Amino acid sequence: MALEWIVLGTAAGAEAIMILLLTMPGLDGLRQGLLSAVRTALRPLLAVIPFCLFLLMDIYWKYETRPTCEHGSHACTAAEHLRHQKSIMKSQRNALLIAATLLFYWLLFTVTSLVARLEQLKQRTNKLDRQD
Question: Collapsing DSSP states into helix, strand and coil, what is residue 71?
Answer without folding.
Answer: coil
